[in-house]
Write a structure and sequence with these properties.
The protein has about 375 residues and is of the alpha/beta class. It has one domain: TIM Barrel, CATH 3.20.20. It has an 8-stranded parallel beta barrel, surrounded by 7 helices. It has a two-stranded antiparallel ribbon with strand order 1-2. The protein has a two-stranded parallel ribbon with strand order 6-7. Helix 2 crosses helix 3 and helix 7 packs across helix 8.
Length: about 375
């Protein structure tokens, strides 16, 4: 590797897994599953990215129980049929020597919702696909949402075990790493935030109490996966309210996660008081990068930056400045699945075509050589 090779295209080894570059497919809910089982849509969705030269992929927020899904169309990992189908997605990435992870989740009080293009509101109680949501406290997510059932100690323990069981299925399916979804107002985040956690027992109150469930899940998942397997954790670094999670809380959480075997903190924000993506004021490109920078420096842990990262130069500058170690792309990869290849061209990689599979790189390289020869002749 040349000294001047762009940072975005340099490899990164985390435990026993090496990413060949720093471009990561962010987990993107597709709402196309049937009974939690991925479909041909998911295979095609991830195939686009695997052929586009990314460094790693992460499969969407996947419910650890049927009730942990956001919508009836969300993926799940509570049975072996789901794991078998996920193994086909794993095989797509592995065919290109790309590591792939899965984001394990429980939607908490935001569960039992309609699909986004059907309004994303709570399913009607008499809807045959609806179910009762659970949460740390019986506080509805928003006006018009039903009050969730408050979890007791037995329910908390059961869900902790369910995260571990899903992690074991992820290992069996061939995934290379796991990400715990602790963001966006879902169950784990709702335990951490004082906005949604009104408990007076050991799972509530001060920050230490509110971190108890997130850390218990982390310990359970870490124990369920091999030591060589990296563990990621997605967090909402701030709630966007003076009454909610602040960046100082997240730095303290990140330090505790690191002590329990988390390797990368995936730094998002919001979701406690409304949609993560539907906001009144359009955010600026890279608006969440300062959170990744603060957590990286404050907790001494690898971080992944997200949030309107739109161009290769922007991504390169984030890494070069030391604000993050990985770049997660969602909608930008939907629009531009060959982002890593375009980055290699734009940033002056030594062998830009080699980012792509050989059968693509060969023809693009030959075309580039022919064009260069024509230009020299002119």
């Amino acid at each position: 590797m040349r000294e001047a090779e762009p940072r975005l295209l340099q490899p990164l080894t985390i435990r026993g897994v090496t990413l060949r570059n720093r471009v990561v497919v962010s987990p993107m809910c597709q709402y196309k599953a049937v009974d939690g089982v991925p479909t041909s849509w998911h295979l095609a969705h991830h195939g686009r990215f695997a052929l586009g030269g990314v460094g790693a992929g992460i499969v969407e927020a996947t419910g650890i129980t049927p009730e942990g899904r956001i919508t009836p169309g969300c993926t799940g990992l509570w049975n072996d049929e789901q794991a078998r189908r996920f193994s086909e997605i794993v095989a797509i990435y592995h065919s290109q020597n790309i590591p792939v992870g899965i984001q394990l989740a429980h939607a908490g009080r935001k569960a039992s919702a309609a699909l986004p293009w059907e309004g994303a509101g709570p399913l009607a109680p008499n809807d045959p696909e609806a179910w009762r949501a659970v949460a740390p406290s019986p506080q509805p997510f928003a006006e018009g949402w039903p009050a969730p059932q408050e979890l007791d100690a037995a329910g908390i323990e059961k869900l902790t075990h369910a995260f571990a069981a899903a992690a074991r299925r992820a290992v069996a399916a061939g995934f290379d790493f796991v990400e715990i979804h602790g963001a966006h107002g879902y169950l784990i985040h709702s335990f951490l935030s004082p906005i949604s956690n009104r408990r007076s027992d050991e799972y509530g109150g001060d920050l230490a109490g509110r971190m108890r469930f997130p850390l218990a899940v982390t310990e359970a998942v870490r124990s369920a996966i091999p030591n060589a397997m990296p563990l990621f954790y997605r967090t909402s670094a701030v709630d966007g309210s003076p009454d909610g999670v602040q960046i100082e809380d997240t730095i303290a959480l990140a330090a505790a996660l690191k002590a329990r075997g988390v390797d990368v903190v995936d730094c998002s924000s919001g979701g406690m008081l409304g949609s993560v993506t539907l906001v009144a004021k359009a955010p600026e490109p890279g608006y969440q990068v300062p959170f990744a920078a603060a957590v990286k420096r404050g907790a001494g842990i690898l971080t992944m930056a997200v949030g309107l990262i739109l161009t290769p130069r922007q991504a390169e500058n984030i890494l070069a400045s030391g604000d993050a170690d990985l770049i997660a792309l969602g909608r930008q990869l939907i629009a531009e699945p060959n982002f890593a290849y375009h980055a290699a061209l734009e940033l002056g990689a030594a062998e830009p075509h080699d980012v792509l599979p050989k059968s693509y790189a060969f023809y693009l390289g030959r075309r580039a050589a022919a064009l260069a020869a024509r230009d020299r002749a002119d």
